[in-house]
Amino acid sequence: MNRVVIVDDETIVRVTLRALLRWEEFGFTVAADFPDGRPALEYLKNHRADLLITDMKMPGLDGIALMEQLQKEGKLPVTIALSGYNEFELVREAFRVGAFDYLLKSDLNEESLKKLLQKLNEKIFVESSRNRADGGAAGNIAAFGFEKLEGEHGIVVFAVDEPQKQTARFGENLEEMLQKPVLELARQLPRVAARGKLEAVDPFHYVLLYRAGDRNQYRHTILSVVRQLQSVWRDYMNLPVSAAVSLPAEGEEALLEALERTSRMMYLTVLAGRSAVCTEWDCAGELIWYQEESREAGELVRGLYAADQAAVRREKERYFARLAGMELSEARGRSLMLAALLAYQFRQYEDDFFGLFPEEVDYREKINRLQTERELELWLNNYFRWVTDYIENRHDDRQADMILRAKRFLNDNYANPELTLKSAADYVGLNEKYFTSRFTREAGMTFTAYLTDLRMQKAKSLMASTDLKMYEISERVGYHNVEHFNRVFRKSFGTSPGDYRKSVKQ
Q: What pTM value is reported for the model?
């Protein structure tokens, strides 16, 4: 079997990838999955992997940096770039580093994954494809026991709200302090013990399989169980948990499809606030809109999160033109999906979407109150301004602090000729690619230009205030070679260091 490693900061994406199909039928087995590039890198240093599927955009060590490090160490497996929205710049960079192919998250489904694995077997894993025995073992979804279930079952996916805050509360040992009591409390409930099976995906995500029984009573019964579990976790652990609930399904294939849909419905729970419940019978239509809007409104969402006023103005005009051609009910629904997509963007960067407003917001209730297209447009304009202001105020502090720390680091170390962009990025705790783009945006010039300018200004100061020889000044501002220093100085100021010193002395 070819060993697969999946890396994505979204647990739902990792669960969906595992559950979309039976990997063993194609000669693959998912050996491990990780929410960040750092633990994946450590794992891949010591374990064999034949296929790496990695997200390109993660808040820790991103997919590009992970690939570069593995390539440097000669341990880069066949790699598939996993990209949110249509981030073709990142995909092109992935191909440059050595990716074989890419998958868009918006197009992730059983058919697309099946075609990719078939392509890999035809192009890369030819021999193992030929030698694979018929009728492989059960897939990685065996932990859920789908293939053994008889009768109709419902699926509930639970997600702990505000994982950053819960991590701060429960500490580093989340499996012991968070996951274990969540499972123990749930299994003490008679209905869960008798008719359900709750499994942890990770400390923040859980899947409940529940025997449906009377289909006519299913909706009422499953919602009652979900609310009871939420109440127990809230009362005993002060833990807000949202949930997505499927319709009953029977058979392994149907249950796999239900798990995929239910996992995706978790993106919609934020619309009703913390501890919300999204059901397939209420949210199926919204899920289709969500997937469509991820393509249509992706640029607007990214512009809002980046507080890019030019992008927001441009994309907002296009967005309102689209809404104008819709019935009011659909326009309101599409606007709801915009909020859900923005929440997803917040989660990608470990930001608190619920912190946008001082009070809990039920987006469905608020938007559905709007009675005309004009009211909807006014509300959206106000919402866009609120989001942009919030992001600017929040990011200004973070970015200013990061840039200030980086500039102080450069000011303290400019004389070191070994000073590099990597050493500055490591100092402020960011990967190089993200650091250089942030630094350029915030400082108004590239890292190299800033460092060169800093060194040249220090050199001018030394020329004016000391009698040091030119090679000594060169060394004091970080240049091994005085000829190189002379060339850089002339390029910066249009005159040689010697002529500049003469003019200052005169």
A: 0.56
